[in-house]
Specification:
Blueprint lengths: L1 H15 L4 H8 L3 H8 L7 H11 L4 H9 L6 H5 L2 H15 L4 H15 L5 H21 L7 H17 L3 H18 L2 H15 L6 H14 L3 H17 L3 H16 L3 H4 L9 H15 L2 H14 L5 H17 L3 H14 L7 H12 L9 H10 L8
Helix pairs in contact: 1-5, 2-3, 4-5, 7-9, 8-10, 9-10, 10-11, 10-12, 11-12, 12-13, 12-14, 13-14, 14-15, 14-17, 15-17, 17-18, 17-19, 18-19, 19-20, 19-21, 20-22, 21-22
Length: about 400
């Protein structure tokens, strides 16, 4: 059995290094019970785990090689030779040859897929296909007799690229794509797209450490452009987040209450749209959790977290993990340091590696930032600091 073969090699290497399961678990950022299951062949492990264990145990690349030997990747030769870009270019050409699908409809379908799958797809998995589609769309715009008809999908694709790069910790590149998204949206003349681009940028620009004054200006512009209730609710939410981080609690609370009120009046078909560009009911409560946590109103934050957990799809592991980290933040603020750190550590250890993002670690870092100075010497704080440097998405 492949899992057993890798597990035996992992156990042998760990014992040779005179480490217990718990000691190795702290070094690699995995739960010791999970490692025990891997060693017994009950769980397969992963290439990333093998690399981490190689580093922790000083085994060079022996465990990575053992994992690869136990889990060979077998792909047809044609698939190995064809990149995502090549395959997509071929498909677009085939569809266009028969003229059955207008270019705008084709690209709208592509964007809808990215928007639907974004929250549940690893950014490292998303980036290659996304890059290929961006290049294809650029070529399509260059050869189109009416390129402005593709401006809306181009702006939306730029937004997805900006968010993907932000999740991978590439803040400078993300900023350039946000600017491209705004400029392209403005060129489209579509007011809804112009507002959406700015709302998303304001919300996520905070995590990219962009200047607060700039983010507030962008959020205010998004609100001024918003031409329908869901766009108004999102723009108000963006404004609330920026104001909360800026320490303007009263204004943040007002913007949040307005966003909640507008969201509550939205029709069911809008509230059920959990895609990236939709405004589902759970998302306004995620914003509420962030705002209340940022201004120190933990009672309101707990309430918002409970509502968000109830409504957030179970497959959206990243969103749910960020909510749990905000809960950990609140626990530490309330003086329950041990419980808060335990909650945050459990999130980072138990969340699958493919779900880890830069935004998640930003939230995890905020938990550490509110630990009182008197508690910074705790062993749990040391272990937590070790987890914060893992960044598995940088190793994939």
């Amino acid at each position: 059995m492949a899992e057993a073969a890798f597990g035996v090699e992992l156990r042998r290497s760990r014992q040779a290094a005179a480490l217990s399961l718990r000691q190795l678990a702290v070094r690699v950022g995995y739960d010791h019970s999970y490692l025990s299951q891997v060693e017994r062949g009950q769980r397969p492990g992963s290439p990333h785990l093998a690399e981490l264990c190689d580093r922790a145990l000083g085994t060079g690349s022996a465990l990575a090689a053992a994992y690869e030997q136990a889990h060979p990747v077998l792909l047809p030769a044609a698939a190995l030779a064809a990149s995502p870009g090549t395959l997509e270019a071929t498909r677009h050409g085939l569809a266009g040859s028969f003229g059955q699908v207008p270019a705008t409809d084709e690209w709208a379908a592509v964007i809808a897929t990215y928007s639907r799958d974004f929250a549940a797809t690893a950014p490292t998995d998303l980036l290659p296909e996304l890059t290929a589609d961006v290049e294809l769309l650029r070529a399509a715009v260059g050869s189109s007799q009416a390129p402005t008809t593709l401006a809306v999908p181009a702006a939306e694709l730029a937004m997805v690229m900006a968010l993907t790069l932000a999740n991978l910790g590439k803040g400078r590149a993300a900023w350039r794509w946000w600017r491209t998204a705004r400029d392209t949206a403005d060129g489209s003349g579509d007011v809804a797209t112009r507002s959406l681009a700015r709302s998303l940028e304001a919300i996520h620009g905070l995590h990219e450490r962009r200047p607060r004054a700039e983010m507030l200006e962008i959020a205010d512009r998004a609100l001024a452009l918003a031409d329908r209730p869901d766009r108004i609710a999102r723009a108000l939410a963006a404004r609330a987040q920026v104001l909360a981080v800026a320490g303007r609690a009263d204004q943040a609370g007002l913007a949040l209450r307005e966003s909640v009120a507008v969201t509550a009046a939205l029709p069911a078909e809008v509230l059920d749209d959990t895609s990236l560009f939709g405004w589902p009911a759970y998302r306004v409560h995620c914003v509420g959790s962030y705002v209340h946590t940022s201004v120190g109103d933990t009672a309101a934050a707990y309430e918002a977290q409970d509502r968000a957990f109830d409504l957030c799809p179970v497959e959206y592991l990243r969103d749910r993990a960020e909510l749990q980290l905000q809960r950990a933040h609140c626990l530490v603020q309330d003086g329950e340091v041990a419980a808060g750190l335990a909650t945050a550590m459990r999130v980072l250890v138990e969340l699958p590696d493919h779900c880890h993002t830069e935004l998640l670690y930003a939230a995890a870092g905020r938990v550490l930032s509110v630990v009182p100075a008197v508690d910074l010497g705790r062993p749990a704080v040391r272990d937590y600091r070790e987890l914060l440097v893992r960044r598995p998405y940088q190793q994939r």
